[in-house]
Amino acid sequence: MSELGRLLQYSKRYVGLLVLSVVLMACVGATTALTVGLIGPIFDRVLNPNSPESPVVLFTIPFWNHPVYLDSLMPANVHNVWTMVAVGILAVFLIKGLCDYAGNYLVNYVGLSAVTDLRQDVFDRVVHQDAHFFESNSTARVMSSIMNDLEKIQVAMSNILADLLRQSFIFLALGVRILQTDWKLALASLTVLPFVMLPTLRLGRRIRRTTRSAQDNTAELNQVLQETLSGHQVVKSFGAEEIQSNRFRDRAERLRRSNLRYVAQQAVASPVIEFFAALTIVVLLAYARNQIKAGNMSTGEFTSFVIALFLLYEPVKRLTGIHNIFQQALGASQKVFEYLDRDLQVQEKPGAARLARIDKAIVFEHVNFRYPTSPEGLVLDGIDLDVKAGEVVALVGPSGAGKTTLANLVPRFYDVTGGAIRIDGKDLRDLKLASLRDKISIVAQDTFLFNDTVGANIGYGLSHAAPEQVHKAARDALAEEFILRMPEGYGTIIGERGVKLSGGQRQRLAIARALLKNAPILILDEATSHLDTESEVLVQKALQTLMANRTVIVIAHRLSTVRRADKIVVLDRGRISETGRHDELVSRGGLYQRLYELQFLEADVNP
Fold first, then answer.
1. What's the mean pLDDT in 3-23?
2. Does any domain span residue 59?
3. 320: domain range?
4. Burial degree of 35 (CB within 10 A; 0-12, 13-18, 19+)
5. pLDDT tens digits for range 460-505
6. Buried b / exposed e across 420-435, counting CB within 10 Å, b at 16+?
7. How many domains is the chain built from?
8. What sign for the dihedral angle of Cα 172, 174, 175, 180?
9. Listed residue (565, 598, 607) closest to 583, CA to CA
10. DSSP state string for 258-277
11. Share of the chain above pLDDT 90, in %
């Protein structure tokens, strides 16, 4: 019920439309009962020319027991029973059709709007999550929840909600109708309902579990699909097409079994209801035969009662199916609400200060850090470091020493688990996130580009940038020469992750993006490590332009960048082992000298 309540909370903005749709669906139920009310006069008066002339009772107002005559609703000059019944049938079906159309549209409008709001909330929550979230949740699983789980909810909150209202009011209206016709017979006929509803409710709980299992299997299938498509070159290079095909087949088979379990559970309700309905009709026929013989009931009244009862069982059957679909939606909502309820590990404090500019330094004060997914050991242990404004600081060390982790703490992709990082004396945790990250540009070894135009990628996140500024940034990054050779220049679509570009071209676009942002702090995370010699030369020239007059933290193995650094910080097992300039560190004979001999000596011998 709490999950259902949370889903319905998203309809509060549209409560006026929802109330109007409920009124319209109530009219649908009422007109359905009126249709049944016209069946009696057809058999007793229209098809029986010898019937006595008497007013035709259309329905009796509940709780008041006041009859409403069909004659009273007709123009004064209409006295023929056939004409009155014909006009009544046409009018009732016209009103019913209009109300059903308008009510159905409004319910779907409310449901689709509410789920759109929910989907936006989930996306906003996910996009603001910290790096820990994306480490512990695969992209395919998150996408499956945002799309597939919410699709289940959307179906329940739109079409199925409309049908729920429609069938509920039809059930109520027809129930009142048969009670007015013969309340004893009606109660006897409805005694089978508990035998139908109780198993259905119990079945709904199983359906919810089955749905959750099916959605998890869908997420696994999406993950195999996403990994295969993204890593298609690796798959082909290892000749692993058959392996991936088998993985996909296995996940697809699991999904098939989950869906078949749902179909089997869902299909039980309909034959059970139909059997009990047939049993009820057999009993009714025996009862009605005696009643008609005794003159207590006319053929038209009994026919009207039986048709109303038949129509009454249809909503019961539909409502059990609707109940099961809502159980599907509730099962799907569990994962969605998990994302909404997940606390943000990196949060902005109330009243956080805005970072206007950087005048002095970035200071690491006895910084400790451990990953929540690996709490057994510190990745960074007791880091004390000053990075002065305008200084180039290089972080070097063996793989796994904590270089990238240390750099990622500056834009608060993670928060320190001990100590503090300060900019001009202000703790990063006391600053507005947007103002902090606005002062930082990052160029990483794995540049991410969007499936958009060259110009849009350079100006990403900077809606105020004019085309002339984009072009200047591209020229300064030495990117314009290849951009202008492309089919549509700055308007060329570069494909997913910039697949149409070479590694060096992607890096130069990333540099152009950073130049356009013009942030005072620059983080270079091995920005040239994957490039060939020619591309590296071009990227290094572009980097020199980018690094000018900025505070730079460089994670690099390449000699050219490290040698020019104002300060080199050597990390080993999460601790700073050495600090100094290139020549100083080489002469000390420590870890840096060993790294130099391994990585840089050949470059010195063969420049």
1. 86
2. yes
3. 9-341
4. buried
5. 888 788 889 999 888 888 888 888 998 889 888 888 878 888 888 8
6. ebbbeeeebbebebee
7. 1
8. positive
9. 565
10. HHHHHHHHHHTHHHHHHHHH
11. 12
The domain that holds 31 is classified in CATH as: 1.20.1560.10
Mean pLDDT, rounded, for 370-375: 74
Scored b (16 or more CB within 10 A) or e, 49-84 reads: eeeeeeebebbbeeeeeeeeebbeebeeeeeebeeb
> What does the pLDDT read at residue 191?
67
Q: pTM for the complete prediction?
A: 0.71
- Alpha-carbon distance of 389 to 359, in angstroms, equals 6
The answer to whether residue 538 is domain-embedded is no
Locate tokens 């309905």: which residue? Answer: 277
Show Cβ contacts of residue 440 under 8 Å, excluding neighbours closer than 6 positions. Answer: 410, 411, 519, 521, 522, 523
Rounded Cα gap, residues 49 and 51, in angstroms: 6
- pLDDT tens digit sequence for 189-210: 666 666 666 666 666 667 667 7
Helices 533-547 and 503-517, interaxial angle, to 10°?
A: 0
Tell me the C-alpha distance between 326 and 322, whole Å: 6
Residue 131 within a domain: yes
Q: Do 366 and 383 touch, CB atoms closer than 8 A? A: yes
Say if CB 595 and CB 588 are below 8 A apart: no
Distance CA 461, CA 513 (A): 9
The residue ranking higher by pLDDT, 247 or 602, is 247
pLDDT at 606: 46
Joined together, the tokens standing for residue 61 give 């107002």
Domain membership of residue 134 (yes or no) is: yes
Question: What's the token pair of residue 302?
Answer: 């009994």
Q: Are strands 380-388 and 426-427 parallel, antiparallel or unpaired?
A: unpaired
- Indicate the length of the chain as a whole number: 607
In whole angstroms, give the CA distance from residue 122 to residue 137: 14
Decide: 218 and 144 in contact? Cβ < 8 Å.
Answer: yes
Q: How far is CA 527 from CA 397, 419, 536, 554, in A?
A: 16, 29, 9, 9
Q: Which two tokens stand for residue 359?
A: 């005048």
Give the mean pLDDT of 522-545: 74
Closest CA to 226 of 138, 305, 345: 138
More confident residue, 45 or 502: 502
Answer whether 70's CB lies under 8 Å from 58's CB.
Answer: yes
Span 302-326, mean pLDDT? 75
